[in-house]
Amino acid sequence: MCGKSVYMFLLLLVLKQDFAISIRITELTVPSHAVEGGSVLLQCHYDLEGEMLYSTNWYKDGREFFRYVPSNTVPFHYFPNDGVDVDEKDSSSNVVKLVNLTPESAGLYRCEVSGEGPYFMTVFDEKNVSIHLLPYRRPQVTGLEDNYKIGDILAVNCTSSRSRPQTYLKWLINNEAAPKWYTTGPWYRISRERPDAKETIMQLRFIVQSEHFKEGVLQVKCQSSIAPLYQDEVVHHIVHAEDNIIDPISEDILNEEIKRLMQNRETNANYGMDETDLPVPESQNDQGQGSVFKLSISSMVMVLLIQIIFLNPYLGNYITNI
Fold first, then answer.
1. pTM (2 d.p.)
2. 61 and 119 inside one domain
3. How far apart are CA 221 and CA 200, in angstroms?
């Protein structure tokens, strides 16, 4: 009889144990990414399966920072923790609001739910939170002109302000991803204001062709993103400038121009000036650097003749027959 009583007691204990273990967390809402300086809601919903709640506890990296015990005179209690600033007025038994997030706010957050005695069965769930520092301004495009001609070199940089992690940059031409051989980078530069963050730079460089213009307009776009919290873009529309077209030149004017150039060449040769230094204006590709190239008089004549031949076949034939 005694043995049967012990057996029934153990059976009831096991059944009670199984019933208590049925306490479960139905939903843990902890965002995987949050913004530095912002706020976040931590939500822990549970099903007690008929049991009484003893406490709800929150931990960051194993350290408790929030406790809710409904049977206490003061049910809510908060504990100091690095990177954890609890907004008490917007927190409850199921929700904890963290404000003024810092890099130290990143970590592993755990919610524990315990049933009332005598068993105090406890279940928990946990998730990681990463804290991102977002760019403080839109991406900046530098070195871009208002218009380009066919054959011009378009070379521009897109720069994203400091962020953590670094920003992903992407160039688009007419809403299509720029070919890889058009882009260089990305390069990363540590921020002076925030050593824990980096600026991102990517260059777009290509020779402008007629197919780049759609109804006389070339669109270039720089997109910056930090998934899943941030995305921005800057768009520029470039007008197709008129190409250099030489007006038809009469034979007399052409002969006079050639004669003048030849005379200048002979004069320069007499004074030891076979080449003339011609300053080149700073372009959008070499701002602040400047450059100088040497162009001989004979080269100038050749360039002029080539342009005339291609643009005026009649005069080209005339020059060929001279």
1. 0.65
2. yes
3. 16
Instruction: Report pLDDT for 19.
Output: 44
Domain count along the chain: 3
Q: Would you say residue 245 lies in a domain?
A: no
Kindly tell me if the per-residue pLDDT of 20 is higher than 90. no
Phi-psi region of 287 (alpha: psi -120 to 50; beta: other; left: phi over 0): beta
Please choose, from the candidates 283, 290, 292, the residue with its C-alpha nearest in 3D space to the C-alpha of residue 156: 283
Classify residue 4 as left (phi > 0), alpha (psi -120 to 50) or beta: alpha
Task: Give dist(CA 106, CA 131) in Å, integer.
Answer: 5
Torsion angles phi and psi, residue 65, rounded to 5: -130, -10
- The residues with which 234 forms a beta bridge, in sequence order, are 222
The tokens describing 148, both together, are 């380009």
Give the domain CATH number at 73. Answer: 2.60.40.10
For residue 68, the model assigns a pLDDT of 94
Specify the higher pLDDT residue, 52 or 265: 52
Which residue among 240, 274, 298 closes a domain? 240
What are the pLDDT digits (tens) for 231-266?
999 999 999 887 655 444 455 554 554 554 455 445
Check residue 272 and give its pLDDT. 41
Q: Which two tokens stand for residue 265?
A: 């060449």
Q: How many residues does the chain have?
A: 322
Token pair for residue 60?
A: 């960051």
Name the DSSP class of 151. T
pLDDT of 267: 45
Using 50, 70 and 90 to split pLDDT, how confident is the model at 48? confident
Domain of residue 120: give its range: 2-132
Q: Let me know: does 121 contact 107? Beta carbons within 8 Å.
A: no
Supply the Cα-derived Rg of the chain in whole angstroms: 37
Handedness of CA 172, 173, 179, 181 (dihedral sign): negative
Tell me, yes or no, whether 298 and 221 share the same domain.
no
Query: What are the structure tokens assigned to 179, written together?
Result: 């070919």
- Is residue 290 classed exposed, middle or buried when 0-12, 13-18 and 19+ CB atoms within 10 A define those classes? exposed
